[in-house]
Amino acid sequence: MKRLALMIMLLSAYQLKAQIDPLKYPTYTNIEDALKSKKTVYSMSFRDKGIFNIPPDLVKMDSVFFLNLMGNKLEKMDKEIFSLKELEILNVNANSIKFIPDEIGELTKLTSFSINLNSLTKINPNLAKLQFLKTVHFDANSLNVFPEALLEIPSLEEINLSSNQISFVSENLDQIKNLKYLNLSSNQINDFSDVRFPGKIKYLELQQNSIVKLPDDLFKSKNLEFLNVSNNNLKDISSKVKGLKNLVSINLANNQLTDLPKEFQQLKNLKTLILVGNPMEKATIQELKESLPQTQIYF
């Protein structure tokens, strides 16, 4: 599981790097070179330096908007980080951080916050002060509930909470009005029935939980394109699935499904249907193939 989380984390790091123009915003990898530079310093990376603490002189880099502290030995988020009032992208993945301090609320320009593979058990409510946040990655920590602070940040577009210990998700998820991508895979979610989803949701990952029933509100998600609910305990899918008009791919592998409702035929955009590992009879499989000729089905 941790290996998978590491792969996701590395992909996220490359995505963050892609946001930075290396010619316009050269990234400095040590504080000495940054201090000597005659140019304004916008981007700094201390990735895999083995450091236990932030260099104190970081406070002098008041124009920095990108800071990468991934892969070190930090046990806390040092105060120097919170002096960077222009900071937009912060990556502290793969450290040993146990909590997020109250000062996180001072980084009011932050748009992307990644703190994967740490030791968090909860998220500081002051995170809600970051009203420009678009992306948060909290995967591979030890969170046991969906962070309530996120419900107060309607600007969020992407949330990754995979590989935690979450068993409860607030029914008010629809308060995050701009949310498009949500990853809750590899948690301990069982009861999911009352959750209300944002209207803009496009990508939803719920695989490797203990979900026994999909919430009715999910089937109102007209913008949903990709849904993964593999490796759960689903015994049936509601006929309300017809509401997922733009669904392109659904992964239902390794559940307890014996059949699917005929309403699947109304999903005209469905290209991929994965049913591997379900106890379906051959006759049922044949019927599904005939009723969904436009869909690639995997049994």
Task: Note down, in words, how this protein is organized.
The chain is of the alpha/beta class. It contains 3 helices and 13 strands. The radius of gyration is 22 Å and the shape is elongated. The two termini are 25 Å apart. The N terminus is likely disordered.
Mean pLDDT: 93
Low-confidence stretches: 1-18
Number of helices: 3
Shape: elongated
Give a concise summary.
It contains three helices and 13 strands; from the N terminus they run αβαβββββββββββαβ. By secondary structure, it is an alpha/beta fold. The protein is elongated and about 75 Å long.
SSE topology sketch:
Layout: H1 2-18, E1 27-28, H2 31-36, E2 43-45, E3 66-68, E4 89-91, E5 112-114, E6 135-137, E7 158-160, E8 181-183, E9 203-205, E10 226-228, E11 249-251, E12 272-274, H3 282-291, E13 296-298
Parallel strand pairs: 1-2, 2-3, 3-4, 4-5, 5-6, 6-7, 7-8, 8-9, 9-10, 10-11, 11-12, 12-13
What key phrases describe this protein's structure?
alpha/beta, 13-stranded parallel sheet, 13 strands, LRR_dom_sf, leucine-rich repeat
